[in-house]
Amino acid sequence: MEKIVCTCGHENAVGTKICGNCGRPLTEEAKSQKVLDMKYDGSAIRSKTYNKSIVDKIWNFFSSVKVGVSLIIITLVVSSFGTIFPQEFYVTAGTDAERALYYQTNYGSIGTLYYNLGLADLYSTWWFQALVGMLGISIIVASIDRGLPLHKSLKNQRVKRHESFMRRQRIIAEGAITKEDTSKTLDKVEEKLKKLNYKVRRDGTALLAEKGRFARYGPYINHLGLITFLVGVMLHQLPGMYVDDSMWIREGETRAIPGMNGYFLENKQFIFETHDNDPTTAQIQQGVNAVAKNYQTDVVLYKQSEDALPGQTDQLEIVKEYSIRVNHPLEHDGFALYQMDFRLNELKAMTFSLTNKETGASLGDVTIDLRNPKKEYVIDEQTKVILVNYFPDFTGFNDKGEPQTATPNPNNPAFIFNMITPDTPEGEISFVAIQQTVEGSGTGENLYKMSFKGVDTINMSGLTIRMDKTIPLLVVGAFIFLLGLTIGSYWNHRRVWVELLSDGNIRLAAHTNKNWFGIKKEINVLTEYAHLPQYIDQLDDEDDEKIKKETIE
Amino acid sequence: MSLIDLSGNLLEAAFIAYLIATLLIGGSIKSSKPDGAEKRANKWGYLAIIVTIIGFLAHLGYFITRWIYSGHAPVSNMFEFSTAFGMFLVGAFILMYFMYRVTALGLVALPIALLIIGWAAMFPREVTPLVPSLQSHWLTIHVITAALGQSILAISAVAGLLYLLKAVDPKKKGKERFWLEAVLYFLVVIVGFIAVTSGFKAAGYEAEYSYINKDDQELTIIYNLPPFFGMNESQAITEGAMVPLIEMPAFIHAAKLTTVVWSLLVGTVLYLLIRLITRKRIIEMLNPLATKVNLQLFDEIGYRSVLIGFPVFSLGALVFAMIWAEQAWGRFWGWDPKEVWALITWLFYAAFLHLRLSRGWEGRKSAWLALIGFGIIIFNLVVVNLVIAGLHSYA
Amino acid sequence: MDKKKKRSITRGIILAVLVLAIGYTIYSSFTKEKVEVIQRGDQAPNFELVGLNGETYRLSDFNGEGVFLNFWGTWCEPCKREMPAMDRQYEVFKDQGVNLLTINIAQSEFEVEKFLNNLGVDFPTAIDKTKSVMTAYNIQPLPTTILISPDGKVENIITGEMSESDIISYMESIKPE
């Protein structure tokens, strides 16, 4: 491997900017700097050292911060496109055609273009996922490339640094001490800096004080957290890691829970409450009468015994009773059931009165459970109503004259009754639907009718079932990320080099990776205590020059 | 006096205190010779900080009394959230003051806080009851942490603006001068919004129209500004209400568009008046106030506030948001517009930090990035909540 | 030289692992829906339902014989159209070791009985009241027919209406040897 040998005799890897041993600047660029660029402590970024094979080229591509930042910016801009119009999954439409129509009717030709470009489902397109994946690769490669050399160079720091290194630090002081004897100076410096929680090392006439070195690892730790999190997100795709299902369940119903094998759910009741406040300005402006207060489904969770099979319902054991509310899902066995939707006032039962058409006298009432109708409803010995047929969601008659039902749900119930009364022991046939009665043919007009009396309604609750085995990994990832971020942001790595020169002068240099204001305060204290020469900030006097020179194209 | 009235009075007191503090800081800069940030602030500056703190305490008093009155953290609608954001912004300024002893930050931070409070006051101020999804302790935890993070991040834009006010030569033609003036023009437009909204409110303007929405339902809407743009197939209900100049299709909310156009109009008129009277660009007027700014220090303050704010923002706007989303909807991430824009904000500041750490973007470049970052935060507050509908919609 | 080569290999491996992981994620996010549904060749989930006449049907009891499982509802027109043919062919195949069981999705006994009587069919029928069998088989559209071979494996899944000749060939395909 190629090496650069520094004048001090230390061998450095190609690409090193500042000698790892004595601190002499090694490149022309570094030599020309008034203040050294101290990022990665001048160590060679690995990728910069080789650029031979195709693997190296790809590696170097992902290692570049420029590429990383570009990927961040591209992801950011592309993500914003997805918020122009609502995403597909927030649109209630079953088929592709319906979705296309939604974007067309609501947003015109721009909407159609948006849909056709795939922007309506942007976050699940292959290219968006690939973009995030590349960002992930970039984080990993760049961290390996920079973290390891930095770690090495921080670990092998020498106390004594070369003049050319010290003088090129942002904060420097050089000169005679202002009071007392130089023989005590280094002791006093050490004493004070130790009080300021620095770790102090000495080597002859040189001193290196350092604190908060771990802060330099913050970025690498938070990158590790991000990667852990991304791995967690990727694991969602593995079978068995993630369940996302939904179910509608009516009050009184017991249903198998989709995605949650062997479990059943009974809906005791659904509760919808509103706030009883006076309407606010915002409500009036938007024409909202009442603000929702609570959506709640009181449920019983059952489990089948271990050896039970789907379809068997006689071996259900109660697991728990619970009120599922928004923000309060029912949690069990890694699964959680969330209150997501509801439908109020679905028809449950209809009550009719068997009425004499002429006199209007009623022979009695019949209540039909629309979910579970019976064959006949007996009023007394001579009077009964036979249900000939029932169509829960009546849509009309087909070409053979048979009544049709569109769904199994009682949205528009229709009945064929056979009414048997003391006056009509043979029975009278009547077809009854909402706002429609057709009487049996042949025998002329009926004497009796089933007159509508009222309905009972029922509520239906929409629940989501979720199970996510990746959550622990995501939690760990987020925790590591925040930990690294905190370490890297709220602590800083400060170093002070002090050397007693042969002419009796003192040379001091200081560096921090951030918060120069803070380190200056400490150096002020130190200067006063150890009577050091006043330091200067080499960038301070640059200010006004900078303004003149700097323009942004 | 009831608790809610007390709360309102405290907010007004805070507003007045911030106004006085701004003037005091202005005075402190005019009256003193240039001095470094490490030196003690002069008498005026000292007084300004005391008044700011008094204002902040009053603001906090508003927040707490309203919380007690309504029974939930007052961060659940546009008025409440914006006022809280303004409060945290002042809080972040005070924090930075005690770290760096720089009063000049307040010269920008306080007027921005004033603008934000003024903006908030244009929205309905009643206590609104919470819908079920908001009834969670995570509302308090998530929103307050996120707002706190945003306000600390905003301080970097405050420092950046001051940096640029000094660094950009108002006499020299160029892109920087143009865009910096554009930033200040935008602030004037917000003043325009506040002026026109409160003006018509004071005059008692109100006109009701019916319209047909995109789902073919007939609804009514109340305009508080004379309608330039009418809603789809709009019909006046209020007698004698003016006919909108242009009718918009159903997918454009014409009432909001009218507000935007009114604000731009009044803001532009205001801006032109300023230019006509002073015969100067606004940046030229403000430039003398910024001469005392120590560029090195303000660059550092800008960077430091991103460093402090970024972890807080990550925690509040992403991590806490994900925990709450998991609890309320069973998925920690749903690509809701607000979520996406929180992610965009986060990505942007991540890019900021990488550019600064690894590519040496300091000084001007960093200051411009800080301004863009604040632009994203404001976009997230205004446009995402009011224009892009989603789970976080306030309108 | 060796060290360089080693480094290149390490980098190559890291990159390859990353690319594969991301590739797999993207690939599986597009094929996900298909994985969850029951597939041909899978062991057919066992179940137990009580039929209209009170007898108990347990899938495992049919071991060694073919099972023709038909899911339906009264509102489903194609279901209704294919039923008479199913009934006819069941009469032919039931002595050859092919069982027919039609499963109604959670309707009332009244509706089911009326519907079948009107059609004039009398094959074995059970009602899946809790939709648990439907859930176990991940039935989406109706009608769906699951053909189960004598060794208890899913032989075929047919969604949509079948003609009489379809039904014959399907019953043929699950006849025990």
Mind explaining what this structure looks like?
The complex is a heterotrimer of chains A (553), B (395) and C (177). With 553 residues, chain A is α+β, with helices and mostly antiparallel strands. Chain A has five domains: 1-44, no CATH class; 47-154; 159-212 and 492-542, TATA-Binding Protein (2-Layer Sandwich); 242-345 and 462-470, no CATH class; 349-455, no CATH class. Chain A has helices at 28-32, 46-49, 54-63, 65-81, 96-116, 126-155, 163-166, 182-195, 218-235, 281-286, 471-490, 516-530, 542-549, and strands at 3-5, 11-13, 171-175, 199-203, 206-211, 242-250, 254-256, 263-274, 292-304, 316-325, 330-332, 335-356, 362-369, 376-378, 384-391, 394-397, 403-405, 414-420, 428-433, 436-439, 448-468, 494-500, 506-512, 536-537. In chain A, the strands form six sheets. Chain A has a six-stranded antiparallel sheet with strand order 4-5-22-23-3-24, covered by helices on one side. In chain A, strands 6, 11, 12, 13 and 21 form a five-stranded antiparallel sheet that branches. In chain A, helix 6 (126-155) packs antiparallel against helix 9. Chain A starts with a strand and ends with a helix. Residues 545-553 of chain A have low confidence and may be disordered. With 395 residues, chain B is mainly alpha-helical. Chain B folds into two domains: 3-170 and 281-386, no CATH class; 173-280, no CATH class. Chain B has eleven helices and five strands. Chain B has a three-stranded antiparallel sheet, with no helix packed on it. Chain B has a two-stranded parallel ribbon with strand order 3-5. With 177 residues, chain C is an alpha/beta fold. Chain C has two domains: 1-36; 48-173, Glutaredoxin (3-Layer(aba) Sandwich), CATH 3.40.30.10. Helix content of chain C is 44%, strand content 20%. Chain C has five helices and seven strands, in the order αβββαβαβαββα. Chain C has helices spanning 2-36, 77-93, 109-119, 132-136, 164-173, and strands at residues 48-50, 56-58, 66-72, 98-105, 125-128, 144-148, 154-159. Chain C has a five-stranded mixed sheet. In chain C, strands 1-2 form a two-stranded antiparallel sheet. The N and C termini of chain C lie far apart (67 Å). Chains in contact: A-B, A-C.
